[in-house]
């Protein structure tokens, strides 16, 4: 069985890949406000799944620079995984980042 850190990272990778390769092109296109709304939903799904498993757990996740709880580990690792894909998607789909 993988460590909790690897399980959360794997979940985040799967969610981000599904979002940027399937959901966003189909439902959001190049509209920044739709991408932001769907991204809020997808990151919330990751937090809900991890929270379900670790809500009252005393387990501390290793974030290389500090030990943090499940919430911060999930949120920070999700962002780190998402940023390169987001930049690629914005460039490929010519997303106008001006609101």
Automatic annotation (TrEMBL):
Chain ranges passing through the membrane: 6-23, 35-55, 70-90
Top-rank lineage group of the source organism: Bacteria
Alphabetized UniProt keyword annotations: Membrane, Transmembrane, Transmembrane helix
Name of the protein in its database record: DUF2834 domain-containing protein
